[in-house]
Write a structure and sequence with these properties.
Blueprint lengths: L1 H26 L10 E5 L4 H13 L6 E4 L3 E2 L2 E2 H11 L7 E4 L5 H14 L4 E5 L5 H12 L4 E4 L16 H19 L2
Parallel strand pairs: 1-2, 1-6, 2-5, 6-7
Antiparallel strand pairs: 3-4
Helix pairs in contact: 4-5
Length: 190
């Protein structure tokens, strides 16, 4: 009986460790960067970090275009328009910026951005969001753009969430569990 109890405890501990590290690895896929047709930054979470990361990628030459997506209002303007204004202040020329101002969810971001990138005849993009949101955003964009469209995952560094120790912060735990549930919901409803 004691051997079985010890085995059960060991199994529970192993599953706990796998969950702690596996959740963050699953939620935050990262790809090798390469030049693409556009850099897509979707609003939400730590939007400032997302903008800064997208602009840094643009300045480093990973694309000649940026596309900001998000409808939620920042004062008098959409998130996309607010992000555009910040990018312009950081040196991105207005001619290199596209915006999508209608989407209110990740799925809508993907569908509305897909319409724009197809209209622009783009074949590749770097997708910038928060690390805990990267998997769900990627899956939505993959569904909207199709399997032949090149999507490179690249997360911004989020002020509330770290891959290595997300469980040590209450807000990060909330974000992680929430994203796991949203990912499961998406998988079930495919």
């Amino acid at each position: 009986m004691i051997k079985k109890l010890i085995k059960l405890i060991v199994i529970i501990l192993i599953l706990g460790v796998v969950f702690l590290f596996g959740a963050s690895i699953y939620l935050s896929p990262q790809d090798k960067l390469e030049k693409t047709d556009t850099i897509v930054v979707i609003s939400g979470g730590d939007t400032d970090a997302r903008i800064n990361e997208g602009v840094a990628l643009y300045m480093d030459g990973f694309s000649d275009k940026m596309l900001f997506s998000g409808a939620a209002a920042e004062g008098e303007v959409s998130n996309a328009s607010a992000m555009k204004n910040i990018a312009m202040r950081k040196g991105v020329p207005v001619k290199d910026i596209l915006i999508e101002e209608d989407s209110r969810t990740t799925e809508e971001n993907a569908v509305d951005v897909a319409r724009i990138v197809k209209n622009q005849e783009f074949t590749s993009l770097i997708l910038v969001t928060s690390p805990y949101h990267q998997r769900r955003a990627y899956e939505a964009f993959r569904g909207a753009l199709g399997k032949d469209f090149k999507i490179i995952n690249h997360s911004a560094k989020d002020s509330q969430w770290r891959k290595a120790d997300w469980w040590s912060n209450e807000q990060a735990r909330f974000l992680t569990i929430g994203e796991i549930m949203k990912n499961l919901y998406s998988l079930i409803n495919q």
